[in-house]
Inverse folding.
């Protein structure tokens, strides 16, 4: 019983750490969010913080997983009002408010291309999941006449992910780049000719 209670406390502490880290990085940026600052935010030493994660890289990968969980919960809440693809566009739009998390994502995803990197498995699974979900949404949209019939859903999903990743890098270089607007243009190109695709143009949340 004690072991089970200890495990539950460990899970709860990890969640506390990830929630705090998400806020610190979003507020201060990835470059200035040291492990020491994250540890202090939850009343731990650096060694104490890393007791819950195998490495700094794993910690940051789990921060991104936590961000994905928050975005997914928001999408599920709004699922009756917007499509998955439009939800994706809105997520890109919101990213402009959290440059620290965008910087963390772009840096860590580049480093994680190395199969030996602690975050490699996370990014590989994230890519597979995203491509599968968006490809399925595109197929449903094709069946409803909302997407071009000649699109290859799997390739289109890959293009959306590549565009989003590339736009985040461009935005970090030049904050005047409107990421959501460019994703909207790509979605518009996927719509049938003459279709009034509300998901293709920026809209208010």
């Amino acid at each position: 019983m004690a072991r089970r209670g200890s495990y539950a406390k460990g899970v709860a502490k990890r969640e506390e750490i990830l929630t705090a880290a998400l806020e610190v990085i979003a507020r201060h940026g990835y470059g200035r969010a040291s492990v020491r600052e994250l540890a202090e935010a939850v009343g731990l030493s650096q060694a104490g913080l890393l007791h819950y994660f195998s490495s700094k890289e794993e910690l940051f990968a789990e921060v991104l997983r936590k961000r994905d969980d928050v975005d997914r919960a928001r999408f599920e809440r709004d699922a009756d009002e917007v499509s998955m693809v439009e939800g994706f566009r809105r997520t890109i739009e919101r990213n402009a408010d959290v440059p620290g998390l965008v910087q963390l994502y772009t840096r860590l995803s580049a480093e994680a291309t190395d199969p030996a990197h602690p975050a490699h498995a996370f990014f590989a699974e994230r890519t597979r999941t995203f491509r599968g979900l968006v490809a399925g949404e595109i197929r449903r949209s094709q069946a409803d006449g909302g997407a071009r019939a000649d699109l290859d859903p799997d390739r289109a999903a890959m293009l959306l992910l590549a565009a989003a990743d590339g736009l985040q890098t461009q935005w970090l270089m030049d904050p005047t780049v409107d990421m959501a607007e460019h994703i909207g243009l790509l979605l518009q190109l996927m719509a049938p000719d003459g279709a009034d695709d509300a998901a293709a143009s920026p809209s208010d949340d």
